[in-house]
Amino acid sequence: MIQAPNSAQSWNAYTYVFNNPLRYTDPTGMIGIEERQWAGAAVAIVMTAIYPGSAQLWYSMLTGMVAGWVSTGSMQGAITGAISAGLFAGIGSYFDSARWANAPSGSGAFGSGLTWGGYGAKSLSHGVAGGVMSSMQGGKFGHGFASAGAAQAFSPMIDTIGNNSPSYAPKRIAAAAIAGGATSMLSGGKFANGAITAAFSRALNDEASRSNERQYGFPDNWQSLETNFVPYFTDDQAYLAASAVNGVVLADWVWSFNGETAKIGIGDMSLSDGSSMRPHRSHTDGLSVDLRPIRTDGSGGRPTWRSSTYDRAATQRLVNALRVSGNVDYIYFNDPGVTGLKFCCTSSPALHDNHLHVRYKK
Q1: What pLDDT is attached to residue 256?
Q2: Domain stops at, among 213, 241, 276
C-alpha cells in the first residue's frame, strides 16, 4: 500500500516517509507524528466539549491519557498525557480558588479576574507545566515553556471569543494553539509541537474548568425554594453553577429554620450559554445571583436601603444566612449599617442600593 500516492516521494523506496524518517515514524507508513499530534489535540477538544461537570480531575487525566495515546500510539505517551493533563488541571483548580490571586469580579489583569501577581504566576506555572510536557515527550523544555506560557498569557483575550460560550470552546482552543505554535517558532521550535502543547493547556485547564462550572440550570432546583423566594427573572437568566445552587438552597433552609416569614426577591443569575448579561459584568459563569433586600411588609418587592419600607435588621439576618455555607466569596450591597458586605463600583455608586449581589466560590 502506498501512502499519499499523488506524491512522487511515496513511490521512491529510498525516500521513505517523504524522505524525512526522523519526523515520521509510524510503523505502518500511513500516519506521521504530526498527524498523530493533531489527532490527539482533536481528541482533547472533543472530550472537553462533552466534559461531565462532576468529573473534575480524573476526567482531565483520562482525556490527557487518551489524547496522549492517540498522539504517540504508545503507553508512554498515554502516561505522559495523563500527567500533563493533571498538571494543567491542578494549576487551573489552584488559581481558581486562591484568594490572593483573584481580583474583584470583572477586573484584574486584562479583565482576567486575576490580580497582576496571580496572572503572572498562573502564566509562569503553565509555562513550567508545558516545559515538563515537552521534555517528557523528548522535546526541549524551553519550547514547551514558551508555548504553554504564551497561551495562558493570551487567555484573557481568548476568553472573549464567543463571550465564553461553551459552544465556542473549539475556536478558543484553536486560538490558543495558534498563539502557542507561533511562540514556539519564535523560540526556535516547531509550530506543530507548540500548538499541541498550547491546545492541551487550554483544553485541559480553561475549558475543562469552565465546563465544570456549568453543571446545573437553576429552574430544575426551583420547586424546593418557592416558599421563601420570589423570582423576578426570566428563564434564560436563571442559570447557576452547582456551588451557587447549593449555597442558595442552604440559605433557604436556614431562613426557614430560623422561623423567618419574609419573602426574598431573587433575580439575575447567568445566561446558560455564558454570554454577557447587560448591565452586569460578572454574571457570566453561574456563580453570581442578585437578591433583593428585605422589605418591612415581607413581600419580596424591591426597596433600596434608603427606603422607608426597607428592613435593615431582617436584611442583616439574610446576609448571615447566606454566609452559613462558607462558600460566599463576597456580597455587594451599599447599606453601611449591615455587616459582612463589600462596597462596589465607585463609578456607579447607586448600582447596589436596591439588591445584594452574592458571589459564590467555585
Answers
A1: 86
A2: 213
